[in-house]
């Protein structure tokens, strides 16, 4: 289950984040750089105030890649009692040496190696971090004004990072000026956590205070893992956006058709020998029947993003040569159907360079009914309605 990490500046913002259902409270000074460190006393006070209600983490700052400097700062932050210490690894010939210097600390503290998507990260260092005992690795962005994570690390490249990190036993995090529309695009990669700052603040400006409303909107897009008997912070109008089918609640809403048309990519495809070793243009047309959440969609919590369809296509194409158009169409359909709200999908794959016209295949696939999921939704919705003082939140 993907957790939500919120970067906060101290005790007051930590309480806002906890009230909003955030899973990990991360101490950071957004005015002091990508990994700006807050004062040690502030970290201690916040850890004491959180008092185990949530996991806590803190960043070491934008430090030079000098082993002793990084080791000393990481040791200092670890002594505050945070659960995780995040260490930035900027491009340098000293990365391996800095990692090795932290190995003794990694034996007793959970360290997270932070790499930067906008600084040409070298994922070959992932096994180095694992060897030195790091708990996890994450990708962030160093220059917040120059784009989001997906501007520098597009969806088709994310599996390479996630799979490589997981193969070495590392927990995986994704961050970097993430916004609400990015969440449904990143959740299919099943990172261990998604990190946020700007999207949780007033006017989406990372140096302004946290906004309870903004925290709630982001939280509603990330499925929540509840402890037995714990109250949910979820607005149950948005169950479908959090991975449940709303069909049993209000079948009258029906479905919408979300489509991507004339989406052309260079693809390594073909069974003939002359089709191997190079790409050819392929056009994709995809239409998905998607369960509706509400009659009045207002934000990303209420919609199915067409970016999910395009990301699915890019991710499959990035895997390499495909023998058949039929295989490509089936793979796209299967990936789109993994989304809980997609009931059926039509996929058209058309090769454009084999003659004067296009040739290809068109398929339609439908999701098998998920009675267990529907039953669970009905039970949770009924339970919410029965809560004292709660009005009916199901739209």
From TrEMBL:
SUPFAM superfamilies, sorted: Tetrahydrobiopterin biosynthesis enzymes-like (SSF55620)
Residue stretches of biased makeup (Basic and acidic residues): 382-395
Pathway in which the depicted protein is active: Cofactor biosynthesis; tetrahydrofolate biosynthesis; 2-amino-4-hydroxy-6-hydroxymethyl-7,8-dihydropteridine diphosphate from 7,8-dihydroneopterin triphosphate: step 3/4
Domain Dihydroneopterin aldolase/epimerase: 258-365
PANTHER family: DIHYDRONEOPTERIN ALDOLASE 1-RELATED
Function: Catalyzes the formation of 4-(hydroxymethyl)-2-furancarboxaldehyde phosphate (4-HFC-P) from two molecules of glyceraldehyde-3-P (GA-3-P).
Protein name: 4-(hydroxymethyl)-2-furancarboxaldehyde-phosphate synthase
